[in-house]
Every structure is written in C-alpha cells, then in structure tokens.
Amino acid sequence: MKKANNRITRINEEIKHELSNIIRTGIKDPRVTPLASVLRVETTPDLKHCKIFISVLGDEEVRKSTEDGLKSSSGYIKGELARKVNLRITPELHFVMDQSIEYGINMSKLIDDVINNEGQEK
Predict the structure, then answer these.
(1) What is the C-alpha radius of gyration for the chain, rounded to an integer number of angstroms?
(2) pTM summary value
(3) Which of 24, 106, 42, 34 is nearest to 65 (CA)?
(4) 2-121 architecture in CATH?
(5) With helix as H, strand as E and coil as C, how does the chain read?
C-alpha cells in the first residue's frame, strides 16, 4: 500500500511541475494572469481525475477571469500534460482557486494590528 502512496505523490509532484510550466509559458489566453501559481495537485488513485489548486495574486475579477481562462484552456493543458508526463491515462483536470495564501496574509496583518494597538495603549 505504501508504494501506491509514494507513486501518487511522485505523480502529483510531476504534474504540478509540468502544469506550472504550461500555465506560465504555454497558455496564450489573455484572461490567465502570469501571476497564477500551482500550489498543490491531488490525483485520484485511479489517475482519472486531478484537482489542481491555483493561487492568483490580484482582486476577485482577476481570479475569476483566470479561472475561466484555465477552464477553457483545459483541453490544451491536458494535451500538453499528456505529451510531457508519461502516464497511461491523462487525468481530467479540475481547477480550484485556493485562497489560503491570501487568508494567511490577512491573518498576519490582523495580528500585527493587534500587536501595534497593544503597544500604543501602554
């Protein structure tokens, strides 16, 4: 059982690496911002589906347009992925916007505000 987990982990990392390159250099859709990055990839054990977590710097409009551009380019991305990663089955790609980095930045700002307010009260 451990071999399957190691195999999926290696496949996830390889897919993540190649998708980062494809999104950065291969997609010509103007809706996809160059500030999009692949944070994490989760592939099902049967390799039929792949959930890709994307982070985009910018406002909600930029995130939405990037998500739309990636979804419309998913056929091209899947073809490039099939060409670059040697798998018997190329998984269906499902893009998910991940806002964990922005959440962390926001929480860090809130903590800094609380610390600064405590320093001013003393």
Answers:
(1) 18
(2) 0.78
(3) 34
(4) 2-Layer Sandwich (3.30)
(5) CHHHHHHHHHHHHHHHHHHHHHHHHHCCCCCCCCCEEEEEEEECCCCCEEEEEEEECCCHHHHHHHHHHHHHCHHHHHHHHHHHCCCCCCCEEEEEECCHHHHHHHHHHHHHHHHHHHHHHC
Q: Using an 8 Å Cβ cutoff, are 90 and 40 in contact?
A: no
What pLDDT, in 10s, does the model give residues 100-110?
777 788 888 88
End-to-end CA distance of the chain: 58
Phi, psi of 91 (to 5 degrees): -70, 155
CA 118 to chain centre: 37
Q: What are the backbone angles phi and psi of residue 73, rounded to the nearest 5°?
A: -95, 5
pLDDT digits (tens, 9 = 90+) for 22-78: 998 888 888 988 888 899 999 999 999 999 999 888 788 988 999 999 999 999 999
Structure tokens at 59: 């406002």
Cβ-based neighbours of 51, under 8 Å, separated by 6 or more: 41, 42, 43, 94, 96
